[in-house]
Protein 1
Amino acid sequence: MTVLKLVPLFLLVALLVPWTGGCDQCQKDLQVARIMNRDLENQLTDKKAEVRELQERIRSLEARINDFNAMMGGKGDQITMLQNEIAALRASLAQKDQDLRDLIDKLGSGAVAASGQIPEGTKAALRALQQTYPEFFVFDEASQQLRFASDITFDSGEDIVKAKAQEVLTKLAAILNQAEAQPIRIVIVGHTDNAKVVKPETVRKHTNNQGLSEHRAEAVAKVLQAGGVDAGRMATSGMGDSQPIASNNTNDGKAKNRRVEIFLRMAN
């Protein structure tokens, strides 16, 4: 059943791939869709594990009740308490089952690959935020993307968001929390230049540029979550130095490549 429902997603990717050769935005859209669907698949795996754990707890409690019944002939407060606990677990299991079905339906419908226009009110608020903090990020309306400069957002080799950048991200969270922005899904992608990670403390924390880019994306997501954005609306990824937007042969180019991109997509 699950495999059949996932077929439309694979078809969607197969249809999109031939069009990505000469279209940078198409490639970005496909990348964002893949990240969002990967995040949903991870959620699906977690939900399945939760269901298995609940089922095991119910079986264990039922076995205990059978033991008590054998010893006490069906009498006693202990049995009633266990029966109540089983009823509560069954209710929780029913909700988990529904969550699983909803996730499978999302994956199967390809809904998360949608890239409709975000609300005009949200766009206006993002333009205003950019005008207030022009040194921190650029808002590209065509691609519905915010590009934060890593050198302003983080210290070198670190994944701790600077205080001023936290202020900007908290204001961004307020915009994304508005009622009209609730259908927006948020994909956060970290990037680095091609300079190898060499500082011992940076190597210990991140290993390499791939790890650093992933951890920076996750750090931005945590600030947005602290500002009230539901974690279920967000997905993160890191690309290391694999997607430069400028030459790494100059300091200016390297600075442009050190960035965190936030893509905004409407979900069906």
Protein 2
Amino acid sequence: MRSPSKPFVPNVVEGRGSTSLGTDGGGGQQPRHVAIIMDGNGRWAAKRGLPRVAGHRAGAEAVRATVRAAAERGVEVLTLYAFSSENWRRSSEEVSDLTALMRFYLDREIATLERDGVRLEFIGEPAAFGSDLATRMSDAVECTRNNRKITLVIALNYGSRAEIAAAARRLAERALVGELSLDAIDELAIDRQLQTSSWPDLDLLIRTSGEVRLSNFLLWQAAYAELIFLDTLWPDFDAAALDAALGQYAARQRRFGGRS
């Protein structure tokens, strides 16, 4: 995670492209990188006559179960869309509840993440949540930095269009001062400027709650990812739901524009 008060400087993984060209992800292969749009907390609460914050709390429990299940199944990176840059349009009360829940989760779960070998990272613009929460996030990242069983990436105040625009702007600035030729600005150059550049390419993107759209989440990274849309509301998502999604993924033939 970048420091909330400093600009993002990507960590480059040599040889990592924006797509896994030349490989076939079908035939029962396990995805290395899974992302989930966690949707449906409010509807889950409404169906039970509960306040929305109760849905968010139940959703946090689903996060814990899903991280554990993903790690047990060999997923290397799990990226969760927790708060989009558009979510600020929600009521101030709900935003406050979400912020308090994130603070509570960090305080309560850090020991569990450390015990279970979970490395925690963040993408987006977490500084917008204030210095207290940003400090807690930085501390959590530092505390778990040597863990290797699974990397849990939380997208907070994240918008994919803004991420791509920022990547293009950094490359343009380098070109203007002569550090980079225009011919060198290609897909790989852009990919290396994204906040996800340190991790494997996205293999599988899941969205819960029956909505069928990406909502400005990992637009570049999802170019060749398999997409699965589930009717399950996020608080009801569990290991069995993850297994079903992984089963769908394993049954698909990933051609990356080629032929089988």
